[in-house]
Design goal:
Chain B: It is an enzyme of class 3 (hydrolase). Chain B: It holds the Pfam family RNase_P_Rpp14. The complex is a heterodimer of chains A (285) and B (168). Chain A is α/β, with parallel strands linked by helices and 285 residues long. Chain A has helices at 20-35, 62-73, 95-98, 111-119, 140-149, 164-181, 201-209, 215-222, 224-238, and strands spanning 3-8, 40-48, 76-85, 103-108, 125-126, 152-156, 186-189, 264-267, 281-284. Chain A has a 7-stranded parallel β-sheet with strand order 1-2-3-4-5-6-7. In chain A, strands 8-9 form a two-stranded antiparallel ribbon. In chain A, helix 4 links the parallel strand 4 (103-108) and strand 5 (125-126). In chain A, helix 7 crosses helix 8 and helix 8 runs parallel beside helix 9 (224-238). Chain B has one domain (6-162): Ribonuclease P, Pop5 subunit (Alpha-Beta Plaits, 2-Layer Sandwich), CATH 3.30.70.3250. Chain B contains 6 helices and 4 strands; from the N terminus they run E-H-H-H-E-E-H-E-H-H. Chain B has helices spanning 20-27, 31-39, 49-72, 97-105, 127-147, 159-167; strands spanning 6-14, 77-82, 87-93, 117-124. In chain B, a hairpin with a 4-residue loop joins strand 2 (77-82) and strand 3. In chain B, helix 1 (20-27) packs antiparallel against helix 2 and helix 3 (49-72) packs across helix 4. Classes of the chains: A alpha/beta (285), B alpha+beta (168). The A-B interface holds A 2, 28, 31-32, 34-37, 39, 68-69, 72-74, 160-161, 167, 195-196, 198-204, 206-207, 209-210 and B 14, 16-18, 30-32, 35-36, 38-39, 63, 97-99, 101-102, 104-106, 108, 115-117, 119-123, 150-151, 153-154, 156-157.
Chain lengths: 285, 168
């Protein structure tokens, strides 16, 4: 299975109107990803943390808009929200949001935002603007402790396909992220706004590999680790205390509840492992 | 004396953007077949082995400078390209495979033709295996289009492992 956790949703805020042409464009991106071999895709809705959240924050209506595409191609589509964290004091509680989205991510743009997102925000993913300077110098201690907490770091490679300046910044930022996380818990995603920004595993992996991440971790970052983020996010809504859920495959849509066989999903910790996240969840029959 | 080690890269040219006539023809088909056929189109005559080699060199130059071009350009050669199927094979030095893969990944045009994806599919040490893989892949693709099967393309990632077992 191949996972892309970041396909841009065209709306920029909750109030933005959405037209059909933009939805068609998203469909084109999804179909290109399907041709490139992706099986699980998350649509990414980016908003400011200080915006007022409406009562139903999820505007995607994935079933209505993309149901036909999902059925004919076998692609699985999930929703993700990314909060741009500027001033932590103005932010609101994200507990309400996380019920409506499969994945919650944070994108800090100030130093205080970084410290909030790394310390105590209940998120699945930490991401940055890869075409701009990082908000602050990333320290081993803060990033590694977030990764230990179960939050993954995201590398978005669409910045590498744009103009020269953002390419340079991309290289700089990726090296910083890889260094500060000691290449643990990194997830690679496209961040595609147009179908031309999609790449397959071979291209993306060779790109990140040359920036200092080991080859096997590059491949993991697009499959196992990324699906772990999906699992984590979906367990938040579909399970009891993130540990027990009913159904055969929680990551799959619609599988909850309509299957007779029960599966226990356990959190496990293997202390000998370098990365505790990998042994954490095992599916047992 | 050590033998000169090379790698062969199988790539394909994908056309993800809709043209009006493609849209018209795909409307009559099932969604999945429409998507597949829209991406795998016949390449225009401006694209040839020569223009692809030029494009890879240009991309190497812009992304990796004189050093990268000099390093990877030494053995670089487009061994095969077919406009009909939009697939081709590039030869490069074993140590510079990543540079060439990145050069393919970081470009969106060939000569004057733009809005396309150069999609590297497989890397192998012998050209024979690449050819065999390309044939198998296109057979599976044809079967997928004919049967209008939904999960054929997902299995492409597994092709190597399965097929190599059979070869042994």
């Amino acid at each position: 299975m191949l996972v892309d956790l970041n396909v841009c949703w065209p709306q920029k805020s909750f109030q933005d109107p959405l037209n059909d042409a933009e939805v068609d464009r998203v469909k084109e991106v999804l179909s290109t990803l399907h041709v490139l071999g992706y099986t699980h895709v998350a649509l990414n809705f980016t908003v400011n943390h200080s915006d007022k959240f409406p009562s139903n924050p999820n505007p995607m209506q994935i079933k209505e808009r993309f149901g036909e595409l999902m059925k004919s191609t076998g692609l699985k589509i999930y929703s993700r929200i990314t909060l741009v964290i500027d001033d932590p004091s103005k932010g609101q509680s994200i507990a309400k949001l996380s019920q409506h989205f499969d994945i919650v991510a944070a994108l800090p743009i100030t130093e205080r935002g970084v410290s909030l997102a790394t310390a105590n925000l209940d998120i699945d993913l930490l991401t940055f603007h890869y075409n701009q300077r990082l908000p602050c110098f990333l320290k081993h201690k803060t990033i590694c402790s977030t990764v230990k907490r179960g939050v993954k770091l995201e590398i978005v490679y669409s910045a590498a396909l744009k103009d020269l300046q953002s390419k340079r910044q991309f290289v700089n930022n990726v090296r910083n992220v890889v260094r500060s996380s000691r290449s643990r818990g990194i997830v690679i995603s496209s961040g595609a706004q147009s179908p031309l920004e999609c790449r397959n595993v071979l291209g993306a992996a060779s790109l990140i590999k040359s920036l200092g991440l080991q080859n096997d971790k590059c491949l993991q970052a697009m499959s196992q680790l990324a699906s772990l983020v999906l699992l984590n996010g979906r367990l938040r809504n579909n399970s009891y205390k993130q540990t027990v859920a009913i159904g055969t495959n929680v990551v799959e849509e619609n599988s909850l509840g309509n299957n007779n066989s029960c599966v226990k999903i356990k959190r496990r910790r293997r202390p000998s492992e370098e990365d505790p996240e990998e042994g954490k969840k095992k599916v047992h029959k | 004396m050590v033998r000169l080690k090379t790698r062969y890269i199988l790539f394909e040219v994908l056309y993800p953007c809709d043209t009006p006539q493609a849209k018209q023809s795909s409307e009559s088909r099932a969604i999945n077949t429409g998507i597949l056929l829209r991406h795998h189109r016949v390449s225009p005559s401006q694209i040839s082995a020569k223009t692809i080699a030029q494009e890879v060199r240009r991309s190497l130059q812009t992304n990796f400078g004189d050093y990268g071009l000099g390093k990877a350009g030494s053995l670089l050669q487009v061994k095969y390209f077919s406009n009909r199927t939009s697939t081709g094979i590039i030869r490069c030095h074993r140590e510079d495979t990543d540079l060439v893969l990145m050069a393919l990944c970081l470009t969106n045009r060939i000569g004057e033709v733009d809005s396309l994806i150069l999609n590297a599919v497989k890397v192998s040490g012998t050209i024979k295996k690449v050819e065999q893989y390309a044939i198998r892949r296109s057979q599976r693709f044809l079967a997928a289009v004919q049967r209008n099967d939904k999960d054929i393309l997902d299995d492409f990632t597994n092709v190597t492992a399965n097929e190599e077992d059979q070869d042994d």
